[in-house]
Amino acid sequence: xxxxxxxxxxxxxxxxxxxxxxxxxxxxxxxxxxxxxxxxxxxxxxxxxxxxxxxxxxxxxxxxxxxxxxxxxxxxxxxxxxxxxxxxxxxxxxxxxxxxxxxxxxxxxxxxxxxxxxxxxxxxxxxxxxxxxxxxxxxxxxxxxxxxxxxxxxxxxxxxxxxxxxxxxxxxxxxxxxxxxxxxxxxxxxxxxxxxxxxxxxxxxxxxxxxxxxxxxxxxxxxxxxxxxxxxxxxx
Length: 236
Ligand SMILES: Nc1nc2c(ncn2[C@@H]2O[C@H](COP(=O)(O)OP(=O)(O)OP(=O)(O)O)[C@@H](O)[C@H]2O)c(=O)[nH]1
Ligand SMILES: [Zn+2]
Ligand SMILES: [Zn+2]
Hints:
Blueprint: H1 7-31, E1 34-40, H2 46-57, E2 63-69, H3 74-80, E3 86-90, H4 99-112, E4 120-124, E5 141-147, H5 154-157, H6 159-164, E6 167-171, H7 183-193, E7 198-201, H8 210-235
Parallel strand pairs: 1-4, 1-5, 2-3, 2-4, 5-6, 6-7
Helix pairs in contact: 1-4
The protein binds guanosine-5'-triphosphate and zinc ion (ZN) (2 copies).
């Protein structure tokens, strides 16, 4: 087997990224915002999920989106229709968002809107099952999507994404009748990588699982507020 990367260089890169991510999280914490990092391979359904989430939770939570894409604003334009702040970030040649790019998004948010008004920032990462899982952006939780069309072996082949996820959305369940996919085996493969991850079966088309996802988001915001209150109480 030949070495295809410089381990020391990678470690430095990840370390610098982690410092930036911690800084971003401090911004979110100061403003009372929960941040979710939404990750998947291309086309698993991140933008459709965000559309449904904005539509359903707009009345309950004040939300903004940081929208990562390599070159276009196609996804950002889709989300702007929901009347929430959408900050596009073009990564150019990079296949993932890093904490520095998201810091740029946060500063735009800070200058154009009042961030203390917000409850939730949803970050749509660039479609890729590998790198986004390695680069924290300052999120409070990681959400991974895996569509049924990708096959049940993906958690074994791309372990990091599944090990890091706090919530896994198995998307496009409406397509199950047309595919040879064993949902039990898929869940077993996910559990092998991460015994504690919340798994939600979801179809943006039929609406299956969406209420469970909305509850998960609400709980995450609630939990994050409680944790923050505890830290503030200890610091006093
Ligand atoms: N049948 C079915 N199709 C879906 C579902 N969710 C998304 N799709 C379709 O899958 C395609 C990709 O969806 P997007 O939401 O754009 O996926 P994405 O992850 O944002 O894609 P990138 O940003 O390019 O990585 C679109 O044609 C969607 O209509 C679903 O639950 N069922
Ligand atoms: Zn998208
Ligand atoms: Zn990458």
